[in-house]
Amino acid sequence: MAFERAKQHLEAQGLGDRIIVPEHSSATVAEAAEALGCEPGMIAKTLSFLQGEQPVLILVEGMARIDNKKYRHCFGCKAKMIPADQVEVLVGHEIGGVCPFGILSGVIVYLDESLKKHETVYPAAGSDHSAVRLSIAELERSSGAAGWVDVCRSEETV
What we know:
about 160 residues; alpha/beta; YbaK protein; 8 strands; about 20% strand
């Protein structure tokens, strides 16, 4: 069902032909990179946070890690991941398939600056056996992102 919602969203954006359904799991960055035949950094992983009661998704470069100090500076609160058993209820996708496409109403999406080092990225498409090949401009347009943020550790501190 989540995959179908993501697919419908992407088709409405004219990007349905970019969806990839690999034979092997794409649930983790390493699995997705292997299944798609790309560098791990090209995976646009979607991290799920709670800001008070507000679910927030942040898409980051596959090898990036959240910098708690940058996160607090950007959002004015501590980075608090949504508990695994609540992700589907709050976002609309299960862990392994979380993406900004076909999410529940009211979920806020941001894109992290770390993604900009790649011309092409592969976010999930609603399931743990899916991805979609997008340029950064296509991701920005199709994700409904509220904007760009800088909340990941710099390469020097990773």
